[in-house]
## 1
Amino acid sequence: MSDSLITETVKDAVEIVKDHADDVHVHDVHAGDDHSGDHGGHHTSLGLSNTKLAMWLFLGSECLLFGGLISTYMLYRNRHSENLGPDQLWDIPFTSATSFVLLTSSLTMVLAVSAANRKDLRNAKIYLSVTALLGGLFLAGQIYEFTVFYREGLGFTTSLFSSSFFTLTGFHGVHVSIGIIMLVALIGMLSKEKVSGDDAEAVEMVGLYWHFVDIVWIIIFTVIYLIEFIK
Amino acid sequence: MAVSYIDIGPLFLPVLLGLMVVKFFMVVLYFMHIKFDNKLFGRLFYIGLGLAVFVYAAALSTFQFFAG
């Protein structure tokens, strides 16, 4: 990572604070102490959405978590017995199908965010439901895959390969599960009008998390599943 | 994904990794709106991503992962 990126980020942050300070000053003079932003959510002194800033920071930190898990798998991927390795276990057509389902759920999530931005909450809830359903389908595929591997003799402690594989894909599965819980909770809150702040921003935040889970799977599917077949 | 069914010899790995990177950034730039949003959001994410790539590339190097 270059120093210039950090320097530019800090410079940008300082400029945003200065701009915002000027805006607040003008606002204070003309309209009293109401500092709420135009977009409905809570805003930082940067003039940006507090929630969105926190979500991007969280996603940045998640890169380190999954980076560690993927690296550990890469180190241990050859530490298995002769008949219980990726060559004997992987079912690429099946995993490709479940991957397609997860990637499609990203598209329905985008449609949900788009509908929420248009204040079309009915369609937003429909697309959120489809996204949760596709996520559930992916999860069902992963559970089926784990069951097949276990029946063939690959347990969590069978080898270093199996431990690192189940930990990595299991952690991803937990993230998908949490995403589904967030989607279902959001649908319920939108239905009962219990969302504090902007509805569209709430949908966008869950969308960011969901897309992150999707991009992590893009890496896992390529690095863990597909690359094994070039050896 | 379809590339895994076509025999393109030594080009397989670079093509696969290239497609992975393209897909990754298509989702990040367009689905996650980094391209159109405030630059600070993108930089926070890229700092985390860059740090992860750097730290784990270094860690894998110490185990001579890239030597073979």
## 2
Amino acid sequence: MSNKTVYILSGIVVIVSILLEILFVHHHAHYWWQSLIAFDVFFGFFGCVLIIIVSKAAGKCFIQRDENYYGGEDLDD
Amino acid sequence: MIEFHPAFILILGALAAAVLPRRLRQFAMIAAPVLAILAVYRLESGTEWIYPFINNMDLILLRVDKLSWVFALIFCIMALLGNIYALHNDNPRECGSALLYAAGALGVAFAGDWFTLIVFWELLAFSSVFLVWFSKTPEARRAGMRYLLVHAFGGNLFLAGIFILAANGQFEVTSLTASSGSAFWLILLGISINAAIPPLHAWLTDAYPEGTITGSVFMCAFTTKVAVYALIRIFPGTEILIWAGVIMALYGVVYAVLENDIRRLLAYHIISQVGYMVAAVGMGTDLALNGATSHAFSHILYKSLLFMGAGAVIYSTGRRKLSELGGIYRQMPLAVILYMIGAFSISGVPLFNGFISKSMIISAASYNHMPAVELLLYLASVGTFLHTGLKLPYFMFFGPDSGAKVGKIPGNMLVAMAGGAFLCTLYGVFPALLYNKLPFDASYVPYTWDHVISTVQLLTATLVAFWIYIPKLGGVPTISVDTDWVYRKPVAVFMTWLVAVVCNIRDWFGVQGNVLLKKVVPYFNNPFLLVGGKTPVSGEAVTADYDENKYRFPVGVTVLFTVIVFVITFFYIMMI
């Protein structure tokens, strides 16, 4: 699938879901954000970006090592 | 009505699978879990098997209530699916240890006293390690050894806690939430190791990806979910678990971004998913505990399906790294579809079983007025879809062609995957089938406009963000350092150093002792030396080298003595 198709389809789904949300959803909000329209779209998008950026940064700084870090395949017992 | 303990059926099945020839083994591998499922259905709440044991203690081998029943049911279903997946496996001992492992899980679920519980708890570790070792690679041998040591350590903590309880006359498995003191903490730590709560989780992501293709499918289902069962039974409402669970849910997500090994990526998502259950146990309300139970039920189905999918890829291509896979979807379309059903389930897509259980836990957090917990668990479900639903299938099946040669996948593997996918969908479409079995008294409606639309929005937005970041998300050939670093690097170096130091000290004393001996021996030999005398004594020269053969008995003498002692003993016994 080309990038364009994915973005257009996602856009359609999001717009339809927002319309349905406005028409049908009676929010039983415990907190203010639960009554915001399309809150989940923003939460999903920015949450995803945040996860990728934070993990990649943590990976570069502390976590990722060369595949032979623990001795790789030439282990001797 | 005659009742059978399902665990004993599986133990018999394990013995049969380990010794019988191929055809009969395959029959036993199917028959044992099917009979166990029937046995579970014949058990009624309140059934107990009590046997008197030492010190006024009763062994309660079987105690059925709604909680143990629903866990036993899913363990048996899992044993059946896992065995179908492993039918082509020609290693009888591996098939036997898998069934024994499932029996351990069932035994824990039905155990009514601490002693029975710990015996089956240990059986889990000692049977499952073979599922790693049968990979027969150096990595698997070492990862299996670490797995065993960590579990032995955790089991001993648990056992120590049980000793303290037993010393106080408390033999039956009960909730310890209200108690405190060393028994509470020892048992909580012991279970936390099995539940893979960071920083005690590294055994999981270390060993599971090294297991055999069919063995890992069993492993991903049992150990952590047995620990969740134990937490629900023993520690409901222990508040520290709420945050432990939230940390778990996000920890797995962060590591999954970086992971290149397909089964290790899935293993990090076990930690993430079990985090939901642990957090729910910490909340402790009826709805939350139902959520933990149902999510464990769903998780076993979809996670084993995902491991089966990854196993099918490894089986047919011989490759296990994202950076070496891609572009193989045309050669294994059925496996792709079935894997995607598992991926949709774990991501909580409506109409699949993850949706009906995960949303229950998140709602429970909301009803408990824990906004931070709710949002962070919600964030973790973004990560779940990102990795298991998008990144892994994209780079494993689709993505740039890797040129991997795809072999044939055995039919039984696909049948097992189809069975898992069917159940994932069945429970997703008809949640009442699962909700009716839940042990606690709380009703929940998953399919509301609110839930469904929120989920659709969340997942679509995740998809868009993923698509933007695709170039950055491909597998890179690195490994991720986790808390197992502690015992694989500094502790390993320390142990090597310690052994070297001790060996050096022993050698030094040995050498110096010999020097001293050489100096002293002449004086014993010739006391005149003490007064300055120099006359050498007659007979053996002091300087002659020691030759041990000079002092040895011939073998015949030893035999003679043995015979004499035997004859005397024999006649003595005969005389009495």
